Amino acid sequence: MNRKLYVARSPRIAARMLGEEMLVMSGQGSTLFTLNPTATILWQAADGATPLDEIVERRICAEFEVKPEDALRDAEALAEDLAKHGILVISEQPIASTPVVPQEQQQR
Amino acid sequence: MSSIMQEMSDRALRLGVPFSVQLDLTYRCNEQCVHCYLDHDDHGEMTTVEIKHLLKEMAEAGVFILTLSGGEIFLRKDFFEILEYARSLTFCIKLKTNAVLIREAQAARLRDLGVESIQISIYSHQPDVHDAITKVPGSLRRSIDAVRFLRAQGLKVVVANVLMTENMQDYHGVRALAEEIDAKYTLDPTITPKMDGDRSILDLNAGESALQRLFRDETLVGNADEFCAPPPAPDEGSMRAIPCSAGHTACYVSPYGEFYPCVQFPLSCGNVRQQRFIDIWRNSEQLKEVRSIRLRDLSSCSQCAHGSTCTRCPGLAFMEGNMRGPSTADCEKSFARTGIPSVNLLAKKGNASTASPAPLVQIQIVPAITGTRLSGAGASASAAAS
């Protein structure tokens, strides 16, 4: 039986798009990360209310040529890694509200 | 600086993004420090609405690191409202404060809001010395209590120890105090002129012999012989390098909305009450001029032996009268460190009618932020830490 996973952005992180990458600083130990475009899509879609499989289907499979089952497996691994670093929160239940997603900034 | 932070800063430079901004929320203060460069009267601070509007513009412009400073930031009754809004825009927030108004409740709220770090000014481990500088009896005890409250919440605290004639002998004590209360420590023997140009407070700067002792203190600088060694000859890379981040990836906004390249560089580039933040950043003629400065274009500094290692501050040079001229304070620093006079100092010696300001130095020994890259592989959503 497939379990539903929900992902939400941690309220303790700082984040900003810089060019094509998302720059994220974890509140835990001031560790700095960069997320590539795929990881950025997952992070931006992590609203705590949309199940991970829907995010994969609607956002990742729609953007990249990848099999849904492969993409979901990779997305779960990515979500767990981001959670381990305090960037995402994972739950089998919907998660309460999270901070505003940083907007696409204006480039010079 | 971590390699990723350096890489991001370099990328911000290439993209023309204002990566880091210091926003002073007020110049009002509950301490009256003898060396302060500010006028503490309120000449019309931005309102809560104006500041929120500015923060939204900054987020849209790509600002990542936002330092909130003053004056004393906790004197603004809307401070937590501003901070909460800034965090909703996912800025990385650093605070600068004397912490006198931080008690357990404020510390807990700062933790809940995910503040990255809090820098607190401590001048001495001795109450009579610290309180004489702040002119507030009991201020050292209040500030140290605040550090303990913040550390109890797991927040990162940096003790900033500005050195001057009054407390030059106390930095070992402050450093030990920082270790005892589990805070990081940074030392800054730099007294800058007042923003209105008044240079009288520069008399508080430590003398040359005190600075020489500081530069040879291996607990601060590592190998003193290496630190104080004669500089290598400037190469083509140093001739082309930008002097600092001011105006390139960083800028400063005053409580009145004035936009400067840096808090130490009072060249007005516009006012965010009249123009959009990003328009000033992109189009200000003053900023374009600041961005054009390279060592090779500076008549005396390009000929100087210290060219490759000098920390010449264009803001201090500007306050001396010419942003393309030398910063005598940094010449004095190089001389105190190496014993080799700069071209500028030699010229002044030959023209003894001009008095040189007291020496200024900056030493930072706060450990760098760590960095990790997380990336999805190709079209999949894999993550790999490297």
Provide structural commentary.
- The complex is a heterodimer of chains A (108) and B (386).
- Chain A is built from three helices and six strands; from the N terminus they run E-E-E-E-H-E-H-H-E.
- Chain A has a three-stranded antiparallel beta sheet.
- Chain A has a domain at 38-92.
- By secondary structure, chain A is of the alpha+beta class.
- Chain B is of the alpha/beta class and 386 residues long.
- Chain B contains 16 helices and eleven strands.
- A nine-stranded mixed beta sheet of chain B has the order 6-5-4-3-2-1-7-8-9, covered by helices on one side. A two-stranded antiparallel ribbon of chain B has the order 10-11.
- The two termini of chain B are 17 Å apart.
- Residues 353-372 and 375-386 of chain B have low confidence and may be disordered.
- The interface between A and B is large, with 48 and 44 residues.
- Strand 4 (31-35) of chain A pairs parallel with strand 10 of chain B, so a sheet runs across the interface.
User: What's the rounded overall pLDDT mean of chain B?
Assistant: 88
Helix content of chain B: 25-40%
Which structural class do you get from the secondary structure elements of chain A? alpha+beta
Q: How many β-strand runs of chain A?
A: 6
Q: Roughly how many Å is the radius of gyration of chain A?
A: 13 Å
Query: Helix/strand/pairing class of chain B, anyone?
Result: alpha/beta
What oligomerization state is this entry in?
heterodimer
User: What is the terminal-to-terminal distance of chain B?
Assistant: 17 Å
Radius of gyration of chain B over alpha carbons?
Answer: 21 Å
Sequence of secondary-structure elements of chain B: HEHEHEHEHHEHEHHHHEEEHHHHHEE
Q: How many helices of chain A?
A: 3
Put simply, the count of helices of chain B is: 16
* Major β-sheet strand ordering of chain A: 5-1-6
Strand order of the largest sheet of chain B: 6-5-4-3-2-1-7-8-9
Any idea what the shape of chain B is? globular
Greatest chain-chain contact: A-B, 48 and 44 residues
- What sequence of helices (H) and strands (E) makes up the elements of chain A? EEEEHEHHE
Q: What profile does the largest beta sheet of chain A have?
A: 3 strands, antiparallel
